[in-house]
Give the backbone structure.
Amino acid sequence: MRKRVTKAIFPVAGMGTRFLPATKSVPKEIMTLVDRPLIQYAIDEARAAGIKEFIFVTSRGKSALEDYFDHAPELENKLRQDGKEELLETLRSTNMDSGAIAYIRQHKPLGLGHAVWCARRLIGNEPFAVMLPDDVIAAETPCLQQMVEAHAETGGSMVAAMEVPDVKVSSYGVLDLNEDHGSVVSVKGMVEKPPAGTAPSNLAVIGRYILTPQVLRNLNKIKPSAGNELQLTDAIAEEINQGRDVFGYRFRGQRFDCGSKAGFLQATVAFGLARPELRDEFSHYLSEMAALPNAAQ
Ligand code: UTP
């Protein structure tokens, strides 16, 4: 019987330089798509996949993120007094159980691999998930749930994967495929940010992972690589070198790279249009704006 995946690490200690000046004081993960912060999308996806313990790797300047998960009794009382049941329910759905969240500090932004390593003492001898809240995935079955179901069959380590165009492949961790079974692919190598023209495939790693605890031990051994950072990809690739299984999982759904401005704007439009109360007004506005040469100038 395989162990269930009940813990997830959320590495949120990055500096978010692509969103400066906003990220000078607002953590990227608190920025909102319509009215919900990025982190809420990731939490909801994790809960749907059966995650019970949420481990945040944070850094200086992220207190707004910790505050977000506090209960808000004054606000709840006011909404109750005013009979605003719907808003009250919206607020309650963001409450987390006592003891379900842990915060670990990454003192220096030494890379994603290092951020995950910082949480090592909170992970026992069981597989765990890693979720990057910058990657927001709209899907009928939430992406991590799809992966947990697939992982129950395969075991090993698993990374979410999607095909990206040639011009973008150098920005990602890329899979070298062994056997391609459609949604599940077995992997014989992984390379982080391959120089142009050297990528082994177009199948790129996206910010959802199910990893064995051995990957945390590999993080102890590997050296910084791309961008002089400790890369999670290298620690997973080390699994393959040691003869253990690593799989890519082609998820069903649409992924938005909310760590980039263009991706964030696309997600805002897509999630805005998906709201029944906004759809008509917003789509009308968008088609008018698209026809103007100098919108918002
Ligand atoms: P990014 O590569 O997007 O970096 O990190 P960033 O600092 O968040 O953003 P930019 O590139 O400066 O705009 C991917 C994920 O890894 C986390 C980030 O918080 C994000 O969730 N991360 C990255 C860490 O937790 N620690 C690090 O040292 C680096």
Observations:
- The chain has one domain: 7-259.
- The mean pLDDT is 93.
- The longest helix spans residues 276-291.
